[in-house]
Amino acid sequence: MKFPKGLLNALLLQLLLLQISTALDTISFDQSIKDGEFLISKNETFVLGFFSPGTSSNRYVGIWYKFSDDMVVWVANRDNPVNDTTGILTLGSDGNLVLLRNNSLGLPLWSTSVSVSSSSKNTIAAQLLDSGNFVLVQQESQNVLWQSSDHPTHILLASMKIGLDRKRGIDRYMTSWNSNNDPGTGNCSLRMEPNGSPQLILYKNEAKLWRSGQWNGIQWGGIPGMTPNNVFSISFINNQDEVTVTWKVLDPSIFSVITVDGSGQIQQLIWQGQQQGWVAVWSDPIDACDRYGKCGPFGNCDPYTVSGFNCTCFPGYEPNSPQDWDIRDGSGGCKRQEGSISMCRNGEGFVKMDHVKVPDTSAIKLERSLSLEACEKECLSNCSCLAYAVADVRNGGSGCMTWYGDLMDTKQFTEGGEALYVRADALVSAQYTKKSGGDSSANNKRLAIILGVSISVTSFLIIAVLCWFKRRRNKGRREQPKLLNDIASGSRSREDLPIENDVDEQRGKADLPFFYLSTIVEATEEFSSANMLGHGGFGIVYKGSLPDGQEIAVKRLSRNSGQGVEEFKNEVKLIAKLQHRNLVRLFGCCIDKEERMLIYEYMPNRSLDLFIFDKNKRSLLDWGKRFQIIIGIARGVLYLHQDSRLKIIHRDLKASNVLLDSSMNPKISDFGMARMFGDDQIEANTNRVVGTYGYMSPEYAMDGLYSTKSDVFSFGVLALEIICGKKNNFQFEDSYLNLVGQLWDLWIEGKALDIVDSSLGQSYPTHEVMRCIQIGLLCVQENAIDRPTMLDVVFMLGNETTLLRPKKAAFSFKNSAPDSSTSRGASSVNDVTVTVIEAR
Ligand SMILES: *[C@@H]1O[C@H](CO)[C@@H](O)[C@H](O)[C@H]1NC(C)=O
Ligand SMILES: *[C@@H]1O[C@H](CO)[C@@H](O)[C@H](O)[C@H]1NC(C)=O
Ligand SMILES: *[C@@H]1O[C@H](CO)[C@@H](O)[C@H](O)[C@H]1NC(C)=O
Ligand SMILES: *[C@@H]1O[C@H](CO)[C@@H](O)[C@H](O)[C@H]1NC(C)=O
Ligand SMILES: *[C@@H]1O[C@H](CO)[C@@H](O)[C@H](O)[C@H]1NC(C)=O
Ligand SMILES: *[C@@H]1O[C@H](CO)[C@@H](O)[C@H](O)[C@H]1NC(C)=O
């Protein structure tokens, strides 16, 4: 019997395929894989084959990681499972990949469905690439006819695109699985909205759930913490061919995916080895304000309000339905204020809302060539224009976005975000201009506080960087972290460094002590995690040891402070000159490219919170020590407010910012940080959000107004914490959970001593403790004008003067006297300086 030669070859190949199918990454024309056979990518990262998800017995064709077969990154027949194990994936006679059941005459369960010219179909092959992409290629021309990355399921791998290919008419978007047992098309999808200024939008069915904000030239405007970094990069393309976004992992040894799940969460996962598996490093939406339209049209959502209600109206607007707002439902949004005057050629202006996720940009008008000034004119000239903003924040800002309809889904950030200019009638805009102290930009409402970048994003960066460091270290000392590579490898000499003076010559000479990066790298053992002392809002702190044995604490500042090298140097010089026995000594700093570090004296006893909030260590501080600590802190703050050449408002006074030297003398740290970073630059992490909340004065928390009196407030809280050995956990709902409220109630009942730290035993002078409580309560009074100055405080602590009776404490509910019902808000603090720091 004679076989045609071609057929014989094909048969042989088929046999071969059965034998060693595990080693192949390609199916050629007329070949197939059966259930139980696999394709494996060249470097063995990905596998393609049949699988059953979870507890299901259905069979699907999918791609997964070889080292982690539960991470299925793509599914072919997600809505058409094979109900037995007879499935066959074939490169069929028409040049398409098709999924069939053996011996079944039915329609294919799945097919690539591209049109292939008949002349070229036997030169077609399907290959599983190392990137996880499954491609159908015309081998001679290397023409890609179809690829799995154009049809994402619930996972986005690095270098896969989301968005519109305008030439081919493909819209790539991610869709969740139905459940862990069913990869079928689910209800949540992440899509590119190409209209207006493009944004990523997460949908649940047809409803918008979350919005990334527009691409502002550097990043998504609604994810302010996801700034360019050394671990991942994001690139956005918008031209006549496509509107797409892709991301990349810069270190090829990191495996990472982005997923969308059925509950409407987007997550980025990193592979952390067999033991830990996939660990989430970023996820969105994360807080109530991420929910699309939470505060309705013309509403602004602030996740960190003290009252727990997150919605406010735009300047000049008021709630559509005050009743709903009373029951904390802001979704009805806002309307122009009753009785407001015309905003059409009637002296109207714009009020700046800073650090916001600008409203939905899908229906805006976008003009790329206009500057900010021209944009204002453009908006002013059309009476239907309700707001404008810069589209691209690079190079000082360019591109003009103007809004005409309802302004939906605005979110307040404490840092980052963009500025939105809202049209307001003559009256309102005059009000806001005045409020901001004559500053025409009307940036009155800067909640410049602590809370900063959304929690997830900050931890994303920290974790990403940490695990990346860990990996590096695991690979052995030979390899230095990339950040430091060019110095370590000698591709940059010491002479290239911007600053010449080494500390060894300079330390002690007072003027401007600069350290080399290499010195710090060595001192901290390459920022080893073993040397990490903690992380605060401004960055991570490491312990280090200089060659001469001097111990130091290195604060490695978070990036993107936006401040120039010269400005930063000047600030450090100024701050370094502040010297007081109750302030931590700043030895100097280190600047290298993006790196900014501050070098402090090292405090062996770490920080006060480790003592007063620790049930064992608490007893190490008797009343005498505590009183000395309270006085020391008061003196340190007074020096900042009054005695130093610069008037400095600390703005983040709290137990963890008070360090203790070897004799338990208190030393304030992080002073001058607000100054060094400017209002806008204070970053945050989870601890800080929680930790600092309890120390915030009402006018600061609600209106962003800070003054020396806000520091007095924080000092009061701190003093009361030291006396009671308890944290002032802030809980609006229940004043009994917040120390200040609780203490206030007991004070009124004359039982304040009940709450004094029990570890003090009975061995304290009742009179002195009562006096300190009273001084503390005077500092936390609701109205800033009622609070004493720091000078008063130091005086009261040191002398037996008669003390005033404190009025109602902020955030407490029991009133002491009728006069204390004054509402919180701007009116109560009008007399207080709104300036942070004034040069003297
Ligand atoms: C599997 O599905 C086919 C049709 O798609 C059907 O004819 C067959 O009975 C099913 N088998 C089982 C075991 O359900
Ligand atoms: C289809 O099934 C038949 C009989 O069950 C078997 O002999 C044949 O090898 C199968 N074909 C493929 C391509 O697996
Ligand atoms: C395999 O190739 C991919 C893409 O080129 C790369 O990201 C990955 O690190 C490689 N994996 C291994 C184990 O070499
Ligand atoms: C998806 O939405 C539909 C319609 O709202 C609902 O019936 C279905 O249960 C949802 N499916 C999942 C997996 O949530
Ligand atoms: C306001 O936002 C916070 C933070 O996301 C959230 O915990 C709180 O429940 C929100 N308040 C309301 C009334 O939704
Ligand atoms: C104002 O802008 C809107 C939206 O672009 C446009 O439809 C309208 O014609 C403009 N009106 C005037 C007077 O230019």
TrEMBL record:
It catalyses: L-seryl-[protein] + ATP = O-phospho-L-seryl-[protein] + ADP + H(+); L-threonyl-[protein] + ATP = O-phospho-L-threonyl-[protein] + ADP + H(+). Keywords: ATP-binding, Cell membrane, Disulfide bond, EGF-like domain, Glycoprotein, Kinase, Lectin, Membrane, Nucleotide-binding, Receptor, Serine/threonine-protein kinase, Signal, Transferase, Transmembrane, Transmembrane helix. Residues 285-323 form the EGF-like domain. The keyword Transport does not apply. ATP binds at residue 555. It is an enzyme of class 2 (transferase). GO terms for biological process: recognition of pollen. Residues 1-23 form the signal peptide. PROSITE patterns: BULB_LECTIN (PS50927), EGF_3 (PS50026), PAN (PS50948), PROTEIN_KINASE_ATP (PS00107), PROTEIN_KINASE_DOM (PS50011), PROTEIN_KINASE_ST (PS00108). It is found in: Cell membrane. Its EC number is 2.7.11.1. Coiled coil: none annotated. Belongs to the protein kinase superfamily. Ser/Thr protein kinase family. This is Receptor-like serine/threonine-protein kinase.
